[in-house]
Design a protein that fits this description.
Length: 220
């Protein structure tokens, strides 16, 4: 077993005097599919935000690929986020005025990938999430499940090492949930590390390892 991809050491997060995370130690291994479960308000999203360098801990260290993340260096942090991480949220946050294809292209264009190449690669990604033929639709012309699949394709735009997904199937029916789980399982089989927050036990059961949270702590 190599070095962990991501490590959290003694993480605390306090907001307005409230302790939301209380001493989290966790290693995410390369190539694993990890799920985080726990009651609403137990700190799952807060933890995922820190893992994704979207929020800074009040105390403790985050190591990414063995290096300590310096939260004072905004540039370094965006570099990791933009190049190595992919995010999928419960609400997809697609840009409503852009087509599915354009939504997937956005992160590629930000990375400086030429338009033609970005367009071609985005079309391939949409095909991989079974949206071939729907590239030119705007989000409102797609079903909830299809929108979430566009969001997954967009999360894959930078070919991330690590995907962080916060209740990615929270708004989906069972059929679409299945499709999304199949996509994640296949991505993971091909080597992508995935951390998924879910409150659905049967989905967590399909991952390599389950972390249980309670009141800002990992309890199992
Ligand atoms: N920005 C914030 N300001 C104040 N309290 C917050 C904020 N974000 C989260 N919390 C609180 O932190 C706790 C954990 O929230 P969260 O991480 O969203 O839990 P979960 O995702 O497990 O439902 C909750 O009690 C929530 O109200
Ligand atoms: Mg949450």
């Amino acid at each position: 077993m190599g070095k962990p991809l991501l490590s959290l050491r003694g993480i605390f997060r306090r907001i307005e005097g409230e302790e939301i995370l209380r001493g989290i130690d966790l290693d995410v291994r390369r190539g694993e599919f990890l799920s985080i479960v726990g009651a609403s308000g137990s700190g799952k999203s807060s933890l995922l935000y820190i893992m994704g360098l979207l929020d800074r801990p009040s105390e403790g260290e985050v190591l990414f690929e063995g290096r300590r993340v310096n939260f004072d260096r905004e540039e370094e942090i965006s570099e990791i986020r933009n190049r190595k991480l992919g995010f999928v949220f419960q609400f997809h946050y697609l840009l409503p005025e852009l087509t599915a294809l354009e939504n997937v292209m956005v992160p590629m264009l930000k990375l400086g990938i030429p338009r033609g190449e970005a367009s071609e690669r985005s079309a391939q990604l949409l095909e991989s999430v079974e949206l071939k033929g729907k590239e030119d639709r705007k989000p409102h012309q797609l079903s909830g499940g299809e929108q979430q699949r566009v969001a997954i394709a967009r999360a894959l735009a930078n070919d991330p090492l690590l995907i962080l997904a916060d209740e990615p199937t929270g708004n989906l029916d069972s059929k679409n949930t299945e499709v999304v789980m199949d996509i994640f399982t296949e991505l993971n089989r091909r080597g992508t590390t995935i951390v998924m927050v879910t409150h659905e036990e049967h989905l967590a059961m399909r991952t390599d390892r389950i972390i249980q949270m309670k009141d800002g702590r990992v309890v199992g």
